[in-house]
Amino acid sequence: MDMLKRVTVFVALFFPLFCGAFCPSGDKEEPDTVYVRDATDLIREQYRPLARYLTFFPGSIPTTGNEMEIITNGLHYRELLVADFEAAKDYIELETMLFATDTTGHFFKDLLLNRAADGVKVRYTHDNVANLFDNIIDGRAVFKGFYSDMRKRGVDMRNFKPIWRINDGLYPLTSWNHRKISIVDGKVAYIGGMNINDGSMGAWEDTHIRIKGPAVISLRALFLQGWNSLSLSESGKIPLHLVRSEEAAVGDGAVFQIFADGPDVPANSMQDALVWTLENASRYVYIATPYFMPTKRVVKAMKKAAERGLDVRLLIARDADVGMASPVNHSYYETCVRSGVRIFERVDRFVHSKVFIADDYMTYIGSSNIDKQSLLKLYEAGAMIYDEHTATINAGKFLEDLKGTEEVSETTFAGWSAGERIKQKLFRPIAFWM
By Cβ atoms counted within 10 A, which residue in 153, 191, 260, 390 is the most buried? Predict the structure, then answer.
């Protein structure tokens, strides 16, 4: 009997603690519900089919009433991000492919650790494989506790792709999280092509957007979709439930649409969006990308668009940051140029921007390169901006950037050495894994 009493007392005292750690909570927090006013009807009629197609999840509902700043200078991006991180009161959420162990990475690591020490919740989605490879390629030490130290000192860090998951196979192993998202207190957010590294915040040509308004919640919904999928328990998930409002959106400003691409989306949305634009634009499509290793479908769409008279231009660096990439980029030049696509090589600096603009109306800025990995395998995120003013400014900048380039022509092909031709043939078959 005494033993039974002891067991009863033990259970009464310790079961609540046990259940709190391992059992579902009975008073689970109800999802936060946010009603989103759909601005699709404010988009130019020609582009509404694209906007409707890209609305794969509630966070992709087009919104209006946003303030945005398009950033093309990495140092300026750094200044803005530092100011917003320092002003954070509740949380900082960060999802970026590269958080490098370089000067920039160390600076932002210290900043985030300080904010965590101040009581700000810092959430960071870390891609183990991508950061490991990047640091090795750039000759940096990687097994010095740089990332584990962040977790130990207060950063809530979730590994997107644990290195030990080799059972997933080679294809999923290279399905890196290539998104670049930052959110501060649900009030300001960033999306685009810039990583947390010296290249994006200094030496490279790159493009990013700073946003305030309803699109911040759209972007947070995308971040939390990935964040919650990495949770080991229900208690580790953050509820956010977006619902399309019955009230119509009003306003005459830019319409902003966040959309995702990758294995968690039921289509190759970036490839589909680019092909749709090439097939439906009436005047021009301007494209900037660091890597040009397109799918057959994209090549076909570019060639057909140029052949029907559309002004299709591509801006790319002559020398990529990864040596094998340049010959692969070059291997697609001849078939495109001979169909009327105009290709311009930047000779003074590396172009890391991922942008395309159409007809002085639509602008894409995001993380997707025009290569097979981005278009078919990687987790990507971008923004479609439906607005004449924004597109006109970006088209003007694109044309201004062409002044520092050399256009690819038949003379370019004739000047390629036998060695260059051999590298194109050797490296192109493995471009899918680059």
Answer: 191
Residues 297 and 426 in one domain: yes
Tokens 């949380």 correspond to what residue? 91
CA atoms within 13 A on the CB side of 158: 20
Per-residue pLDDT of the chain (434 residues; tens, 9 = 90+): 454 444 343 333 333 333 333 333 333 334 588 999 999 999 999 999 999 999 988 899 999 999 999 999 999 999 999 999 999 999 999 999 999 899 999 999 999 999 999 999 999 998 877 787 777 777 777 667 888 899 999 999 998 865 444 444 444 556 789 999 999 999 999 999 999 999 899 888 899 999 999 999 999 999 999 999 888 888 889 999 999 998 989 887 899 999 999 988 889 999 999 999 999 999 999 999 999 999 999 999 999 999 999 999 999 998 887 777 888 888 899 999 999 999 999 988 888 999 999 999 999 999 999 999 899 989 999 999 999 999 999 999 999 999 989 999 989 888 888 888 877 787 777 665 55
**376 Cβ neighbours under 8 A, 6+ residues apart:** 268, 271, 295
User: Would you say residue 140 lies in a domain?
Assistant: yes
Q: Which domain covers residue 402, as residue numbers?
A: 269-433
Are residues 320 and 360 both part of a single domain? yes
* 248 and 274 co-located in one domain: no
Strands 311-317 and 284-288, by their bridges, are parallel
- 92 vs 97: CA distance, rounded Å: 16
Q: Report the run of H or E that residue 316 belongs to, with start and end.
A: strand 311-317
Q: Are residues 393 and 248 in the same domain?
A: no
